[in-house]
Design brief:
Chain A is an all-alpha fold. Chain A is built from 24 helices and no strands. Helix content of chain B is 82%, strand content 5%. In chain B, helix 2 packs antiparallel against helix 4. Classes of the chains: A mainly alpha, B mainly alpha.
């Protein structure tokens, strides 16, 4: 079962494997000046954009959601960018490289949540929300408990995801650029703080769009170069991969990743529905002007993400053919130089030399930067919009002071992320990401879905259901082998909860508690909340009264 | 608000959109879990070559990816046509009869 988690969140997982001890000098690459030069170019460009965005960021709406002025296509690219993290690019291509067919099972798991978001959630979400998904859940429920619950779910999800990204970033950059781990983590934290505090959502979105365009073009070019070596015959290409891979024919067989059906399905649930509960992804739906643009963004996001996973397939198999057979990329024992996440990077070198390798390394760094910026902005908005403005100040707050709190929170989150990134250098990052998805699927998704689609949901039901999912997901993960055995040092096989991912239990539990408590709730306020569904329903279906684009 | 609730266009909009959205959702779930089922219990089939070295599993997997893109595309096409037209009529009707938008 550990293998499943490790296989899944690959980049993070194998950095976790290395995390058993500090990286030894042998795995570290020489300082890569081509990559650093290209990355400096990216930073200069995005700083220019941040400066431009800062001039256009005047209101809370500009800061949180780019004033609703992002088009569906742009937002689709940005969502795809949020999804095409370094973990996906390096990790899934490494999964193809190592296990063959299993890579495809994971790529598909990451993708299939998107159609569901489209069919059930995208439009009501846009019609009901303003800045955060708590806006949607608390639309007709009591503000204080519901926003406190949603903000807690947001912050916990963001915290785990952010630590995972920071630790992954530090280790990856150390490998790719030859920079020290601490410097790498500080560099990521500082750049991210600058983007978010000065440029808000406008800068964050454009950084994400530029990065997505660079990553997609780089990956496309590598794939074309790989296939050109086989005159674009996919069959010949695969035949060669089967011939040279140590597992031969078996790379086309489903392997260890689906050995235990319950763990596999549980992980599938976490991936599929976790996507629909990730706060930084949900926030993107508020950056477009209306439901029609929201729906277009999901279509473009699905298209680009699907296309991207097809490229990772070619890249992973391409690395089997061109990297595993070339002693230049292997150490004395035949293992990949730099560790298990390096197939895509070495392949870039194999088909495009130092320039292509530098480019892909710089894009990988840019990817991490763009993803942590989006995460931090969603965490900051939960604090400033949900906790500060709505819970503590009861909505009696000016635009200026709300944005100020948000910027202060961004700096605090950035510093916390740097400190935790350094402190948790040796943590098992795979479980951090797994936990983030499982919490999103268990704590955020059920409450959000029911608040939009089910008339009967009441404050008590949502509050208890949300916390059931949150505490359940965190608790069961602590009791699972990944933490219980690997981190807490209990003997192997003694974990009270035997599966990798808790989502198969905690997501249904959250739904059941929401339903049961709401149904049994006979209070006057519950009746008023049920009655208020009618007005919410009209708005969620038609957009009448929804926030439009502000003066863009 | 009650006027909108009783508007036949609104009833048609919500009824047909709900039916369409859930139909596509169920199709996607069947495709995905059908695929996972084959992967978990029909491993030899997945590895069987179909065209040269291209296997059944590869064609199926890429098919699932394409089906996700195609289904979202179908939804967008239908929504941009029928649903937006109905929605536009509902909004226009509510503006004509003077329901103040802010109240909703």
């Amino acid at each position: 079962m550990r293998r499943i988690a490790i296989g899944l969140f690959l980049l993070l997982a194998s950095t976790a494997a290395q995390a058993a001890g500090p990286l030894d000098a042998g795995t570290r690459q020489a300082t890569n000046w081509t990559a650093i030069g290209m990355f400096a170019g990216f930073v200069a460009l995005t700083m220019g954009i941040t400066y431009w965005a800062a001039g256009r960021t005047k209101t809370t709406s500009d800061f949180y959601t780019a004033g609703g002025g992002i088009t569906g296509f742009q937002n689709g690219v940005a969502i795809a960018g949020d999804y095409m993290s370094a973990a996906s690019f390096l990790g899934i291509s490494a999964l193809f490289y190592t296990f063959g067919y299993d890579g495809l099972i994971y790529a598909i798991g990451f993708l299939v949540g998107w159609p569901i978001i489209m069919f059930l959630m995208a439009e009501p979400l846009r019609n009901l929300g303003r800045f955060t998904f708590a806006d949607v859940v608390s639309y007709r429920l009591q503000q204080t408990p519901i926003r406190a619950m949603a903000a807690t779910g947001t912050l916990v999800t963001v915290a785990f995801y952010l630590i995972a990204q920071m630790v992954g970033a530090g280790q990856l950059i150390e490998l790719l650029f030859g920079l020290d781990y601490q410097y790498a983590v500080v560099a990521v934290g500082v750049l991210m703080i600058v983007y978010v505090t000065f440029g808000g959502m406008i800068a964050t979105t454009w950084v994400q769009i530029i990065k997505a365009a660079l990553l997609l073009s780089g990956a496309t070019l590598i794939s074309i170069l790989v296939l050109s070596k086989f005159n674009f015959s996919v069959s010949d290409f695969l035949a060669k991969a089967i011939e040279v891979h140590p597992k031969h024919d078996a790379i086309m067989l489903p392997g260890p990743q689906v050995a235990n059906p319950i763990s596999a399905i549980s992980l599938g649930i976490a991936l599929m529905f976790g996507t629909a509960g990730l706060p930084h992804i949900l926030m993107r739906f508020f950056t477009v002007s209306d439901a029609k643009e929201a729906r277009k963004s999901v279509f473009w996001a699905t298209t680009f993400i699907g296309y991207f996973y097809l490229l990772t397939f070619i890249i992973g198999f391409g690395a089997i053919v061109l990297v595993s057979t070339n002693p230049e990329y292997l150490d004395a024992k035949g293992a990949l130089l730099g560790g298990g996440n390096m197939p895509a990077i070495h392949l870039a070198h194999a088909v495009g030399g130092d320039v292509m390798k530098g480019f892909i390394s710089a894009v990988a760094f840019a990817t991490i930067l763009a993803v942590v910026s989006g995460l931090t902005l969603s965490g900051a908005s939960a604090v400033s919009h949900d906790l500060y403005a709505s819970v503590f100040r009861r909505g009696m707050v000016s635009d200026g002071s709300e944005v100020r709190v948000s910027k202060i929170t961004t700096v605090v989150l950035g510093v916390v992320a740097i400190v935790l990134g350094i402190a948790f250098k040796n943590i098992n990052v795979a479980f951090m990401v797994g936990l983030a998805f499982a919490i999103a699927a268990s704590a955020n998704f059920p409450v959000l879905l029911l608040s939009m689609l089910w008339k009967g949901l009441t404050t008590r039901g949502a509050f208890l259901g949300g916390f059931t999912g949150l505490i359940g997901a965190v608790g069961l993960t602590v009791l699972s082998p990944g933490i219980w055995v690997s981190v807490l040092g209990n003997p192997a096989g003694s974990a009270p909860f035997p599966y990798t991912s808790p989502a198969i239990f905690t997501m249904p539990a959250a739904f059941i508690v929401c339903w049961l408590v709401s149904t049994l709730d006979r209070s006057a306020s519950a009746n008023a909340e049920r009655a208020a569904y009618e007005a919410q329903y009209v708005r969620s279906e038609t957009g009448i009264g929804a926030e439009g684009a502000a003066a863009h | 608000m009650n006027r909108i609730r009783r508007n036949p266009d609104f009833i048609e909009l919500t009824r047909s959109r709900k039916a369409f959205g859930w139909t596509l959702t169920i199709i996607m779930l069947l495709i995905y879990y059908g695929y996972i089922g084959l992967v978990a219990y029909q491993k030899p089939l997945i590895a069987r070559p179909l065209f040269g070295s291209i296997t059944v599993g590869l064609v199926l997997g890429i098919g699932v990816i394409l089906s996700a893109i195609i289904l979202t595309g179908i939804y967008v096409l239908r929504a941009n046509g029928k649903f937006d037209e109905l929605s536009r009529r509902v909004v226009a009707e509510s503006a004509r009869t003077g329901a103040p938008a802010g109240v909703l």
